[in-house]
Amino acid sequence: MNEPYTPNHPGHEPGSPAGALHAHASAGKELSARRHREPVDVHLLLRRGNEVLLSRRAGDTYASGLLHMPSGHLDGDFEDVVTGLIRETEEELGIIIHAEHVRFALVMQHRSPGGENRTGWFFEVTQWFGVPRIAEPHRCSELGWFPINEPPEDMVAYCRAGLEAYRDGHAAALHLQEPDDPIAYDPARPVRLRPLPARAPNARAGLGDQLADFAEQAIGPLASATDASWARESSRVWRLTDRGGGSWFLKVHQNSKFHQREVGAYRNWVPVLGPDHAPKLVAADPAQLAALVTACPGQLLHGAELSEPVWEAVYRQLGQLLRLFHSCEPPMMAQAVGGLAKLERHLAAADGLLEDGEEELIRHLAQRLTTLPPIPHGPLHGDVQLRNMLLDSMVLALFDYERSEVGPLVRDFIRIAGTWANAPARQAAFFDGYGRQPSPDEAQAMRGLSALDALSGIQYGAAHGDPELVERGHRTLHRLQKEAA
């Protein structure tokens, strides 16, 4: 059966049983020669809220100069896709992820313009240890966080197709390019992404029966439940959709204090902002520490790239919203000394973490709080940061009210002040929208409260593996030192 077929070979005449068997075997050899022997890729979807981390390829490598997810090939026959992802992540970004934090996102067959096939496994990760950095500068020239809903165009077409399929909720897809297709994404070219239909997802599975029952009693049968938790928080958040396409967010708080604060704020203070500027509370379950709110549209402002005039309009609108929030109850006057009770405990926890002169600065500014006269107090948002804001057609929305309480009004300026430290026009726009500047006593209280907040962030971030929080605290203290000088 190993001889080549010839018409005159005995027993191999066309139409004979032996001839048919020989033809089948020959065809099998040809098919075997063409069978796929493609590499397996792993791709990291490192999530920070509604953003994903992308790296720009550099040097003598495929698609140099284009953005791509951190990725790589499996090493050897015995490395599985999760182990390969963890290894590639540490090699490329210098961060550590644990296998239990790796979530399957998408598998996609890709064919390049040159005809090479490969299979890509995409995994979502929202929890990690360390700060992403360029660990292989000969292969990467840039790292950046980009909105998932609006990925940049200067990407590898293969990678962007995977990101789009993941964004749209698909678990499997084909991306089969033609010979004249470019490697880079080109919006003018035909779309080569073809998502593969999957069975209807079990939206209840990720929530558990009790949470799913609570949600469905409020909004009806669920179509999907996507984990949208912020990487550093212990609260859990899911984006829910119903079968009609409506969207909500379900949040389970880390403790009863935060649950009571957020639910109370939504019931008593948030409505003053209006339906376009904040979510609306749909239902709450104190037994499960759960709250269900409507979803506001828009782009997350943390990491957003906007023109300076737009930023100034955003800060002016933020000032207007906080003025409304602060004024929804009659103002009261009190001393701003609430944070002093934790001073010594936080200093002890930050032992060895503070730089030269920082402890003395904190003690000095905290002590001055005790000598200040009463300043205005009222309802606070409690965590005014860009990551808690959405912008949709120049309409600003505030969310995340789990730190809302009555306190010194200037406390709501502390964290956002770090974003205008080198942008005085944004600061001016904010207070223009707010309607007034802080009084001298409020300005001094703000410095003391900022020092206490920075100390709290440094000790908490160090204890919980959050170097970004530690760095934010040091930046605040450096700014306060310059102001004092």
Automatic annotation (TrEMBL):
<dbReference type="InterPro" id="IPR002575">
    <property type="entry name" value="Aminoglycoside_PTrfase"/>
</dbReference>
<dbReference type="InterPro" id="IPR000086">
    <property type="entry name" value="NUDIX_hydrolase_dom"/>
</dbReference>
<keyword id="KW-0378">Hydrolase</keyword>
<dbReference type="GO" id="GO:0016787">
    <property type="term" value="F:hydrolase activity"/>
</dbReference>
<dbReference type="Pfam" id="PF01636">
    <property type="entry name" value="APH"/>
</dbReference>
<feature type="domain" description="Nudix hydrolase">
    <location>
        <begin position="35"/>
        <end position="168"/>
    </location>
</feature>
<feature type="region of interest" description="Disordered">
    <location>
        <begin position="1"/>
        <end position="34"/>
    </location>
</feature>
<dbReference type="Pfam" id="PF00293">
    <property type="entry name" value="NUDIX"/>
</dbReference>
<dbReference type="InterPro" id="IPR015797">
    <property type="entry name" value="NUDIX_hydrolase-like_dom_sf"/>
</dbReference>
<dbReference type="InterPro" id="IPR011009">
    <property type="entry name" value="Kinase-like_dom_sf"/>
</dbReference>
<protein>
    <submittedName>
        <fullName>NUDIX hydrolase</fullName>
    </submittedName>
</protein>
